[in-house]
Amino acid sequence: MVSEFMLQQTPVSRVLQPWQQWIERWPTPTALAEAPSGEAVRAWGRLGYPRRALRLHRAATAIRDDHDGHVPDDYAALRALPGVGDYTAAAIASFAFGQRHIVLDTNVRRVQTRIALGVEFPHTSATAAERVLAEDFLPSRAERAAAWAVASMELGALVCTARTPDCDVCPVRTECSWHRAGRPSWDGPPRVGQRYHGTDRQCRGALLSVLRSADAPVAEDELLVAWPDQRQAERARDTLLADGLMIMDADGCSLPR
């Protein structure tokens, strides 16, 4: 569950060390729930999208209070936890409990689109048609379905990659419509990566970095000078407050307690 939260919009290479440190510090949901939520934000470090840390803390609290401290194995119960959407619930149920669920991440979508449709890339976001296709690929037996979920994800991450697919070592290249068609280039809308430098996301990260490294509340003016654009820094401060990622009181600014 921790790895699934951390891996949302974040590559595995960036998650490995924070995940290990997190599990060593909070080996159970109850251990995390009993820590201040601000410590979860602090331990999240530079993984990005720090609201995930708060959601994971809230989920751990719900698991402690409503499930006797054990991560539930039921999809509906998982889906009801704070911060757990369709994909995360399916991934936990499949990877942790060996159940049959459609686990449709970007890598899996790319694999099935190339194999079945002969197209280099899937749509920007998952479609109903892709879910139908994923159901067609999914074995009927739960244990084989869980193995397929892992295998297809690894295939997309390590072999059938977005930029440099290694078709020569692909175990399903003879079944792949895209490979048989000569690997035609993408002719859809331009694929544009997300910009980070100078964005509000980067600004929020700069302010949070100050709070994470502080042992005591930080004066507001000291916090805002962490970013050169005063107006953007104030906007970032306001969104951090609205998201519950920081608090301001008479003592200054700090992570939630």
TrEMBL record:
Q: Which CDD domains match?
A: ENDO3c (cd00056)
Which reactions does this protein catalyse? Hydrolyzes free adenine bases from 7,8-dihydro-8-oxoguanine:adenine mismatched double-stranded DNA, leaving an apurinic site
Cite the Gene3D superfamilies for this sequence.
Answer: Helix-hairpin-Helix base-excision DNA repair enzymes (C-terminal) (1.10.1670.10), Hypothetical protein, domain 2 (1.10.340.30)
Q: Where is the HhH-GPD domain?
A: 6-158
**Is rRNA-binding among the key words of this record?**
no
Give the Gene Ontology MF terms in alphabetical order. Answer: 8-oxo-7,8-dihydroguanine DNA N-glycosylase activity; adenine/guanine mispair binding; iron-sulfur cluster binding; metal ion binding; oxidized purine DNA binding; purine-specific mismatch base pair DNA N-glycosylase activity
Q: Which keywords does this chain's UniProt record carry? A: DNA damage, DNA repair, Glycosidase, Hydrolase, Iron, Iron-sulfur, Metal-binding
User: What GO terms describe the biological role, i.e. biological process, of this protein?
Assistant: base-excision repair; mismatch repair
**Family as reported in the entry's similarity comment:** Belongs to the Nth/MutY family.
What the entry lists under PANTHER family is as follows: ADENINE DNA GLYCOSYLASE (PTHR42944:SF1)
Q: What is this protein called?
A: Adenine DNA glycosylase
